[in-house]
Amino acid sequence: MTTFVLVSGGYTGGWSWQEVADHLRAAGHRAHPVTLTGMGDRRHLSGPGTDLNTHIEDVVQVLDHEDAGEPGGAAETVLVAHCYGAYPALGAADRDPGRLARLVYVDAGLPTDGASVLDALPDPAVRERLRRRAQEHGDGWRLPPPAFEETDIWGSLDGISEEGRERLARLAAPQPLATLTQPIRLTGAAAALPATGIFCTKNVTSTAALRALVASGDPRFAAFADPRYGFFDLDTGHWPMLSCPGELADLLLRAAADEGERIAVPDQPPA
Length: 271
What we know:
Helix content: 25-40%
Number of strands: 8
Mean pLDDT: 93
Low-confidence stretches: 71-75
């Protein structure tokens, strides 16, 4: 039996993982959706001091209190993160990687030490728009959920039913700005953990695109050729827990079993 700890992306909460969790439990495993401080049904706990460290501690506490940290349990625990959730998830894993068997990133970038979520956004105009929105509409410290038309924030909503979109609009919570501006601090302790990337191909990238980046020789992507990394593609938008929860749950089970495509470094021509 595997324990899956599921960390949600921006503006959402543990509720977004409910259908995935149901599938995992039906398959005989444990599943614990995480609702970060200020999100979901914990939105009333948000404040100007709610930052990335707050959310890292949220994940640590779930690992501590849901039996994921019991002796002998580490080999059974898979930490799953969607989008923004990669930052608190990796921050928690960095504190005590020995309790985890694997990290799974669902349509999420890989955080780097010293960078914040806003730092990772490639378009400075988007970063400025978010800061301005917090000042004008969020008392200077929180970001109201964007309109669905702002796909540079939400990502692709492809595959989500009309009912699912209505649910997302109704339950989305303001994101504390400091969770996006505080740099993550990593010691590198979690670097040796096996990891799986799940790409939603109707959003931004795919395994094929990453393979091309690795083949380009760019040293920023060389690490992804390590055999401890596995990859899957899902033909859906950025929110597979809402658009295809059963298929996502199946991939999480396969990831836990160390399945997934590996990316090899192409042979180099002789000097």
